[in-house]
Design brief:
By secondary structure, the chain is of the alpha+beta class. Helices cover about 30% and strands about 20% of the residues. The protein is built from ten helices and 18 strands. It has a five-stranded mixed β-sheet. Strands 3, 4, 7, 8 and 9 form a five-stranded antiparallel β-sheet that branches. A hairpin with a 6-residue loop joins strand 1 and strand 2. Helix 1 packs antiparallel against helix 6, helix 2 packs across helix 5 and helix 4 runs antiparallel to helix 5. It starts with 13 loop residues before the first helix and ends with a strand.
């Protein structure tokens, strides 16, 4: 038996494998802890879990991504990370058991997975170069050495046959080595957190220092009656903590506003611009109430919210750069926005420059943008789904054409152009509610950004459509609340809602999935009146 094939004796069955499995888990923990510590010094996005998770997201078919959003909502990234950790734990167990007999093979397996992490990190769109491979490489070396040492403590102390039933592996040495590994891994993990926090301090401080100037064009006051006093209906203005977040960032980028720059360039740009955050703050700011919708929002889904955005008109910046829309002979019909995390989002130039309040937003609900929603700057374009308009953490705008470039989501089967579809939702009563007989207030929201909502109707079971009462309209770029007093009778009932926008188009009843350009259909809830 060679050194690479030594194994513990005196054990049989599953108990014989436990020390090896534990060795694998400890080696895996050491690898991840060291990798995260190094990533704290390089950049958090270069850690192996984040890098592999990002690569998995990039390669996930649109249908699977859509299913994950439906099933897990905004927790889809947490589920992905937990899934990656679960897979790594199983692999660590297998490598630890393998190392019982083949120490070098087990250690080599750890190095192999480190190489996978390094390749994933350096191939990400936001990679800063070979330094992104360091966390995975360092973690792999630490994990391989740990497994080799622990497996060595499980090997025979000598080649002589051991007495029957004797434990001929170094139990004391293994326990000491395992304990030291656990302590060192915990320390490395804490160091990684501390380094990541230190690296983000500048970004956090820069956000705290921001004082948004009074907008040159403030939003009109929200009209009286725009917010209904109906329990259960969504608030007219969505609080920051309740505003949906759907993106591919496993780690929220924290960008220092003092060093942030935005570059505007490309086809038809005669005067390229590079702007700092302070440059934008010094410009005339516009404040507007705008409802945003994610294309992954199913009929009746939660991925829609209304906020008050403060920013700079994007059309003004483009005009300053010499850009003309296609309708005026401009050569570029697509604006490609790039995020610091490598995301690319394509927006029709015509829509940005047609007079709507397309903004480079710096503020949300009177405060600087939260990090999770794009600080320091993001795009907001009313009337378009977010995947073709709402680039967060933006750092680059290139003017190009739809024929010459496909952004991130288009490469994955989503539409190039995606105006928001007319939709409505019942917020109350909830599905399967059990209201009492008598008057029950049915209420919810409807939206058709940049067209506005003209009418909402409710149907009980297969009865006639009855017009609901609309709340006051803030603007055609915001949703509208609605209510309908229903005289509920005992038994089971189905409540259905549909909206008509201000162009006269009635919300279609044809059911369509979110792919490629947004879901359609009527929202219904089933209730039982007692």
């Amino acid at each position: 038996m060679t050194e690479n094939e030594k194994e513990p004796r005196g054990h049989s069955g599953p108990l014989r494998l436990l020390p090896g499995a534990l060795s694998g888990v400890l080696a895996g923990c050491a690898a991840l802890a060291v990798a995260e510590a190094v990533a704290g010094g390089v950049r958090p996005q270069s850690g192996p879990v984040v890098a592999v998770g990002g690569a998995a997201i990039d390669r996930t078919p649109a249908a699977v991504k859509d299913w994950a959003v439906r099933q897990f909502g905004t927790d889809d990234k947490l589920v992905l990370r937990l899934g990656i950790l679960a897979v790594l734990a199983l692999l660590a167990l297998a490598l630890g058991i393998t190392a019982l007999r083949f120490r070098r093979t087990g250690a080599a397996g750890v190095l192999l997975f480190g190489a996978v992490g390094a390749v994933a990190a350096t191939s990400r769109p936001d990679s800063t170069g070979v330094a992104d491979a360091l966390p995975s490489a360092a973690g792999a070396v630490a994990g391989a050495v740990t497994l080799y040492v622990l497996a060595g403590r499980l090997a025979l102390r000598d080649r002589a046959p051991a007495p029957a039933g004797a434990r001929d592996w170094d139990r004391r040495g293994f326990v000491l080595a395992a304990g030291a590994t656990a302590v060192a891994s915990a320390g490395a993990g804490l160091l990684g957190r501390a380094l990541s926090g230190a690296g983000n301090r500048g970004a956090v401080a820069s956000r705290r220092a921001v004082v948004l100037p009074r907008p040159a064009s403030p939003a009109p006051p929200v009209p009286r009656g725009a917010a209904l006093r109906v329990p259960g209906v969504s608030p007219f203005v969505t609080p920051e903590g309740s505003f949906y977040r759907v993106d591919t960032a496993l780690v929220v980028p924290k960008v220092d506003a003092t060093s942030w720059r935005l570059r505007l360039h490309g086809k038809g740009v005669t005067r390229p611009l590079t702007l700092s955050y302070d440059d934008l703050l010094r410009r005339d700011l516009v404040e507007r109430d705008i409802t945003l919708t994610c294309v992954s929002n199913e009929v009746g889904g939660p991925y829609v919210g209304n906020a008050r955005w403060t920013g700079v008109r994007l059309a003004d910046l483009l005009t300053e750069c010499g850009v003309e829309p296609p309708s005026r002979g401009g050569p570029a019909d697509q604006l490609v926005a790039r995020s610091v995390d490598g995301m690319t989002i394509g927006t029709p130039v015509e829509d940005v420059m047609d007079g709507r309040d397309a903004l480079l937003a710096l503020g949300m609900n009177g405060e600087p943008l939260p990090f999770a929603h794009g600080f320091p700057v993001r795009m907001v374009v009313p009337g378009l789904y977010g995947f073709v308009s709402a680039c967060k953490w933006i750092e680059d705008i290139e003017l190009t054409t739809f024929d010459s470039y496909d952004p991130y989501w288009v490469k994955r089967g989503w539409a190039r152009r995606a105006p928001v579809k007319t939709q409505s939702r019942i917020d109350t009563p909830k599905p399967f509610a059990r209201p009492r007989t008598g008057t029950v207030m049915v209420a919810g929201v409807a939206w058709a950004q940049h067209r506005g909502i003209g009418k909402v109707e409710v149907r009980v079971d297969d009865g006639p459509w009855q017009q609901a009462r609309l709340a006051a309209e803030d603007s055609r770029d915001t949703w509208r609340q609605w209510s309908f007093p229903w005289r509920a009778t005992k038994g089971g009932h189905t409540l259905t809602v549909r909206a008509t926008d201000r162009t006269g188009a009635v919300q279609t009843d044809r059911r369509a999935r979110t792919i490629p350009d947004g879901a359609t259909g009527w929202h219904s809830v089933v209730v039982t009146v007692g």
